[in-house]
Amino acid sequence: MTDKAPTKHTIPGKLNLAIAVGQTVGLLSLLAFSGQTDSFLVLGLLTLAYALLMNSTYALLHEAEHGLLHMNRKLNDLCGAILALFFPAPFHLLRQGHIGHHLRNRSDDEAFDFYFEGESKVWKYLQFYGILTGLFWVTVVASNFIALFLPKLLTARWADFDRPTQSLLESLNPRYMRLIRIEAVAAFILHFSWALLWDIPPGHYILLLCGFGFLWSTLQYVHHYGTERSVLKGAKNLRTWKWLDRLWLNHNWHKNHHAHPLTPWNQLPDIGSEGDGEQERLLKAYLIMWKGPRLTNERVNNHYAGKIIR
Fold first, then answer.
1. What's the pLDDT tens digit per position in 28-70?
2. Selection from 126, 58, 68 nearest residue 264 by Cα
3. How far apart are CA 110 and CA 22, in angstroms?
């Protein structure tokens, strides 16, 4: 592995590091404050603030997954691992899942808004509405427990009942398992320590984390629902408030990102061919998703099936 990220674009490394420091201080402050209040209103505001800021943190974590947080790859991955602790989930597991998403996008191996003849409609609906209601985040957080206590569940042998899950697990690289387990331990230790240090009631702590988890999960397929069944074109840019777009590091310019995955966040709005600009509003796209998955006979093969993430 080289120390240089493979990109022809200029990575705003110093800016990203400054943002990462600000995000870390902000998240820790919100967690600490949550232990100092008994007001439901204040706790609700803290939960909202944590969800918004943590989604910004995930956007920077997403840059690290692509090697775009910093040109120095070791520093890039270290920052990504630290930010992932707030998720909380192992960075090297999140990274493999996301890079695999770029390979499987809109193929039969990752078309959550469709089900095929012979598949369980009930399971597809449960899976899809789990994404919309926050359960997807819960399953990712559960990966900490799985990596430590049930690592065999991170292999594809048991998942033949669900093609997307099986395809994800087949792409995982065993070389990262030790790192994944170390990161899982770090997540447990840090969150437990923070809760004790600031005497945060468990309910308050869980509320802040779950507020983020719900928001993050609902956004995970909103940029892909109903789009062209193409790895590169199967995404859409979504419009929201400018301040939110900046806070979330242009993460809603998702069609541009899939077409140009090695372009840093600060350049995403400026790339793409005519017609790649903003489209529908984020909230409208989210509400449309509640129509749920649909039956289809169209098959799209994953040309990267069997590829192990490096």
1. 999 999 999 999 999 999 999 999 999 999 999 999 999 999 9
2. 68
3. 34
Residues 11, 12, 17, 23, CA torsion sign: negative
| pLDDT at site 124 | 94
Vertex 117 angle, CA 111 and 123, to 5°: 60
- For residue 207, what are the CA distances in angstroms to 56, 86, 133, 222, 248? 18, 14, 15, 23, 21
pTM of the predicted structure, to 2 decimals = 0.93
The CA distance from 78 to 91, in Å, is 9
* Structure token digits, residue 129: 């509405």
Give the count of beta carbons closer than 10 Å to the beta carbon of residue 4.
Answer: 11
Distance CA 189, CA 196 (A): 11
Residue spans per domain, the chain: 13-295
Tens digits of per-residue pLDDT, 256-306? 999 999 999 999 998 865 445 557 899 999 999 999 999 999 999 998 988
For residue 74, which amino acid is it?
K
The Cα 243–Cα 258 span in angstroms is 23
